[in-house]
Amino acid sequence: MNRQLLILLLLCFLIFSSCSSEKKDWEKAESENTIESYQVFLKSHTKGPLADKAREVIFFKQNESINTVGGYMTFLKQYPQGPLADKARIKLEELYFTEAQSINTIPAFEAFIKQNPQGTLLDEARKEIETLKNLRHQAFRHTRTAKIIVEKSFWGAEAAFIPFEDHAKKFIKNAGLHLVETDDDDYDVVLKLQAKGEPRGASYIPEGSGGNRRSVYRYTGASLSGTVILEVPGLHTFKKTFKGEIKPSQEISIRSSRALILDSPSSAPFDLAYSKAGVSSKLLEMMGTAYGYTFLLSALKDGNWEVSYYATKALGELGDPRAVEPLITALKDEESSIRRDAADSLKNITGEDFGEDQEKWQKWWKENKEKFLKKK
To answer: 226 in the Ramachandran plot: left (φ > 0), alpha (ψ -120 to 50) or beta?
Structure first.
């Protein structure tokens, strides 16, 4: 055997041994299927198709452990055609679907469908949409847009502030509706406030016992009455009347900056009269009837304590057992009024009474959830 042939055979043996070793190391890494096992493989095999595959698997597993949209997007940008690309897309779709479920509105699931036209969860998203539609009042089932109208007549106080539009905008968002401009003629739902108000005041004597005893008139009170309306024109109308009054203060400090503000009709406390009249709670109650418990759950998580407060009470009055879990969560709210009403609502829905003790409620719910929901 000549020297050249011997060298050739030796090279072939080394290559075969190396391939055999790489294959065995890869099979071991695959069988353990951990980041560490693939990292061990890369220490001995830094080049070649299997090394590239090991890096892809490591990167995927790292992103899988944190399980975020950004992580999978980065992975797909680096490995758009890799063997794990489809798996990353499925994971990404699942995250988008979970996000839509957390929002739990029809527009959220419609946006999911638009974002994932070839996804594996399209049927599930469509079922969620139908479920949400069926929870609505029949007249409101297919509504998508809403318009706010405020008709107010405040004697000499047209610049007075009431928070109706702020609350109405939040409720529109909680219902999954799109807000249109007031001059837009294309809309499905109208939220309307018809209100009459009157500034109330009194004459006050300045402090002190000096020679100037002339009285000063200040608008420290206000009355407000009217109607709040939720309507699908031509199909159905919810309507509730309201009335609230703040009587003028018996005395004020004329020297205070607040007293200086109260010298015009528009400065009268119409916002306090609005709150006392319970306008927002009436509107929220109507929205809850029109859009079901999912609207109230969304309002409960709104972040605005007043909206959450009204939603907590309304959920208790509605009595839907699916509200139990979010109401238990509300027992940890910073606002004592929300915690108190969450406890009252839980008592009303379940018939149990653990006060504001979240741990006892959680324990009871864990033990009774399945049979309670089935019973209801």
So the answer is: left
